[in-house]
UniProtKB/TrEMBL annotation:
<feature type="region of interest" description="Disordered">
    <location>
        <begin position="1"/>
        <end position="22"/>
    </location>
</feature>
<dbReference type="InterPro" id="IPR014710">
    <property type="entry name" value="RmlC-like_jellyroll"/>
</dbReference>
<protein>
    <recommendedName>
        <fullName>5-deoxy-glucuronate isomerase</fullName>
    </recommendedName>
</protein>
Length: 301
């Protein structure tokens, strides 16, 4: 259901056997950081947490010099810096990451220092079990969702472990969708911003059979439109939804719900799409993943 000019129109639809006939339906998850109380608050700033099935997302409004540590981190995590930079320490090395960047931090002990303060998003897999109780929706996945595969990491980088980072200042290119980066645990698409509201006559309703999509709003506001398909079980049926969210916020869309999103503000509207683990279909498109040379694709993909 993509417009013919949308780069995603050429994607090959893939799924793990397709959707089951019943038991598919779950509610979307919303982390409205602009109105909720922070889970953590201190001299380093304020931090909110929300989760999907396979991941935990944290949003930090950081104070100047705020330090955020992870001890015995079980796997690679993501640091997204939409404005100011950070100093990341891992394995005895320190890396200065400029603002408007994405960074990948290996397992083990690490710290992220927001030298000049500012916003920060970190992405952790569900293996970071200590973060789940901090999520505003910590119990949202008590009901089994077997149509979403359990998390499995992608292959390790052949060049070995280190803190890797990339600028998000990437020019648009015809035929490429957004600005996509991946690691062993996540795929992040820092979408091209909307300058003003999105044209309501050029939307992109679509669905995913077996993975969640997390849409992080870092500027502006958006309406997430959702339509539930009918299964053979009426308990799965839902009314359409149109949730108007502001920034910062995170919105997790469950499969196989049909969805599309409209930017709403007169100025800049910036959305970031997040997938855990990475998407195979995006990875199969030549030139779409901007750091594809650093992280291999699993043979199963």
């Amino acid at each position: 259901m993509y417009d013919k000019n949308d780069p995603r129109a050429a994607l090959t639809q893939q799924s793990a056997g397709g959707p089951a006939p019943t038991g598919l339906i779950a509610e979307p998850q919303m982390g409205l950081f602009y109105k909720a109380e922070p889970a953590e608050s201190g001299p380093g700033g304020q931090t909110w947490f929300t989760r999907g099935k396979n991941f935990v997302l944290s949003w930090t409004d950081g104070a100047k010099g705020g330090v955020f540590a992870r001890k015995d981190q079980p796997d690679e995590y993501v640091v997204l810096l939409p404005e100011a930079g950070a100093r990341i320490a891992w394995n005895g090395e320190t890396v200065d990451v400029p603002g408007f960047s994405i960074a990948f931090v290996p397992a083990g002990d690490s710290t992220v220092e927001l030298v000049d303060g500012g916003p920060m998003c970190r992405l952790f897999t569900i293996k970071s079990a200590d973060l789940i109780p901090l999520c505003t929706n910590s119990g949202a996945y008590s009901r089994s969702r077997p149509h979403i595969p359990e998390f499995a990491p992608w292959p390790e980088p052949p060049a070995g472990w280190k803190v890797r980072h990339h600028s998000l200042e990437v020019p648009q290119e015809s035929g490429r969708f957004g600005r996509i980066f991946r690691c062993t645990t996540f795929m992040v698409n820092y979408l091209d911003p909307n300058d003003g509201p999105r044209d309501p006559h050029a939307l992109s309703p679509h669905h995913h059979d077996d993975f969640e999509q997390c849409s992080l709003a870092v500027a502006g506001s958006f309406i997430h439109h959702l339509r539930w398909p009918w299964t053979i079980d009426m308990d799965d049926w839902r009314e359409d939804r149109a949730d108007h969210v502001h920034s910062p916020s995170a919105y997790v869309i469950p499969p196989p719900v049909i969805h599309t999103t409209r930017a709403m503000e007169p100025g800049r509207n910036q959305l970031v799409d997040i997938f855990c683990p990475p998407r195979a279909d995006f990875s199969a498109k030549a030139g779409w993943v901007l750091n594809a040379d650093e992280y291999p694709v699993p043979q199963s993909a």
